[in-house]
Design goal:
Elements: E1 17-22, H1 24-27, H2 34-57, E2 62-64, E3 67-69, E4 82-84, E5 87-89, E6 96-102, E7 107-114, E8 120-123, E9 150-151, H3 158-162, E10 169-170, E11 177-182, E12 188-200, E13 205-216, E14 229-232, H4 244-247, E15 252-256, E16 266-270, E17 279-284, E18 293-302, E19 305-307, E20 314-317, E21 320-323, E22 325-328, E23 335-338, H5 339-352, E24 358-359, E25 370-371, E26 385-389, E27 397-400, E28 406-409, E29 412-415, E30 417-420, E31 425-427, H6 429-432, E32 436-440, E33 445-449
Parallel strand pairs: 7-14, 8-13, 22-31, 23-30
Antiparallel strand pairs: 1-6, 1-16, 2-3, 4-5, 6-7, 8-14, 9-12, 10-11, 11-12, 12-13, 15-16, 15-32, 17-18, 17-33, 18-19, 18-22, 18-26, 20-21, 24-25, 25-29, 26-27, 28-29, 32-33
Protein name: Peptidase A1 domain-containing protein
Organism: Capsicum baccatum (Peruvian pepper)
GO molecular function, one term: aspartic-type endopeptidase activity
């Protein structure tokens, strides 16, 4: 049964709190069954992971929704589209959307949230001729209808235009700050940098933010009509930056990522958190990818058997290296480990499975560890994965079990981790769904409140 996103409840939230939904809930009607939707999500996840790898290898690049961007770069990348399990994938796919009320008319809009980006933009009428794609779930925001809308003036705010973000530039006509982002798959958003208010409905508090007023998003095929733009949640930059944490001057950002197809919305909050901060990882900043949230994965166990770290599993931060360096990324679905570590990880996992037959996977499959289970019998119990951050202490332990370890697809259970060629880990949303996450950049911690929001 298809769910109409326009009829989803968006309950009034206090200041600096937004409702978030899993994007799968909006898009499932396009697929014949859940398995085909999941295969598409995995394909998009693979493309995003590949591109995050390119960002890590080119530290001076700008990341917008996980996409490597260079101003006015018209060259095509041979990897811009990638074939994975029969599905064409692009890099412009997020996992979650947040509900916003935009401008003085409080236009109801869904924006994709992305912890790997520092840009906020949405479609902004009046559009250039045939410049805006059709939005399925919410009306088009019209800037001329908002009494609080205003363009960024280059004469008055030249520093904001030219320095705050490397991709903005002042137009020689009309003192307007403009942007033109071309994603590597050919998709593009361009328009003017402006400011307007968003409203937190419960107390009608209005907060003015700088955003990209998107006048033309019709090049390429990646943008989905299920949302009207992107809200960057990248790490706060003190004294600058255009991610929401930066603009809200919020050291604390908390969220719970709702499960796929769950009609129940969850929350995204700034300045405060409803979650316990008992279990935490240290946040480590890498200025080559400043918007990302890095944590230090110290040890990994399968049940009580330790998976040894390799010297390659590290990343240099300034003058020192951090073993087990990992990025927490809401736009990635499946967690990835460096290839040599993953080889031992999956082998150790297989040794710890008892009484469940492993099956041969087809050549070229994205999985290498899958099991067939009698669906009429009791629920299978697979090994747990213990992830320690910083030290081997209960206060640094994230315990993953069942659906956070195994993915059920096409009638079999497969290990929900994958290898990649980078020397760091990429922690995705499948492992984090239902966990209360608190990003605290003042204390440099990311806290995990297990099953706090299921």
């Amino acid at each position: 049964m298809s769910i109409d996103p326009t009829k989803l409840p968006n309950p009034p939230m206090p200041s600096y709190t937004l409702t978030i939904y899993n994007l799968d809930l909006f898009e499932k009607s396009k697929f014949k069954n859940y398995d085909s939707l999941l295969e598409s999500r995995l394909a998009n996840c693979q493309a995003r992971a590949n591109h995050l790898a390119s960002i890590l290898e080119n530290g001076s690049a700008i990341s917008v929704n996980g996409t490597l961007i260079k101003p006015h770069d018209e060259r095509e990348s041979k990897g811009a589209r990638e074939k994975v399990t029969g599905t064409t994938a692009t890099y412009l796919v997020g996992q979650y959307v947040a509900f916003f009320a935009l401008g003085t008319e409080q236009v109801k809009s869904y924006l994709v949230i992305d912890t790997g980006s520092d840009l906020v933009w949405w479609q902004c009428g009046p559009c250039y001729k045939n410049g805006c794609y059709k939005q399925k779930n919410n009306p088009l925001y019209i800037s001329t209808n908002s009494k609080t809308y205003g363009k960024l003036d280059c004469l008055v705010e030249s520093r904001n235009c030219e320095i705050t973000h490397k991709e903005y530039e002042c137009s020689p006509y009309g003192n307007t700050c403009i942007y033109d982002y071309k994603y590597l798959d050919g998709t593009r958003t361009r328009g003017v940098i402006a400011h307007d208010v968003i409203t937190f409905v419960l107390d009608q508090k209005q907060v003015s933010i700088v955003f990209g007023c998107g006048k033309d998003q019709t090049h390429g095929k990646a943008f989905s009509g299920q949302y009207s733009g992107i809200a960057g949640l990248g790490r706060r930059e003190i004294g600058g930056g255009n991610s929401l944490p930066s603009q809200f001057e919020a050291d604390i950002m908390s969220m719970c990522l709702p499960g796929a197809l769950s009609p129940k919305g969850s929350t995204l909050s700034f300045h405060t958190t409803p979650f316990k901060k008992t279990t935490s990882a240290t946040l480590v900043q890498d200025f080559r990818f400043a918007s990302a949230y890095f944590v230090n994965l110290y040890k990994v166990f399968i049940n009580d058997r330790e998976v040894p770290m390799f010297p390659s599993f590290s990343r240099n931060f300034g003058n020192y290296a951090t073993r087990g360096s990992s990025i927490v990324d809401t736009g990635t679905f499946i967690t990835r480990f460096p290839k040599d570590f993953y080889t031992v990880f999956s082998y150790t996992f297989r040794l710890q499975v008892r009484g469940i037959p492993m099956i041969d996977v087809p050549p070229g499959s994205v999985y290498d560890t899958c099991y067939k289970v009698n669906t009429t019998g009791p629920d299978p119990h697979f090994p747990v994965v213990k992830m320690y951050f910083g030290s081997e202490s209960p206060n640094n332990l994230l315990l993953l079990a069942q659906q956070r370890v195994m993915l059920y697809i096409n009638g079999v259970f497969c290990l929900a981790f994958m290898p990649w060629d980078q020397n760091i880990a990429l922690i995705g949303s499948n492992q984090l769904q239902g966990i209360g996450l608190t990003f605290d950049t003042a204390a440099n911690t990311l806290s995990f409140d297990l099953d706090a929001c299921n």
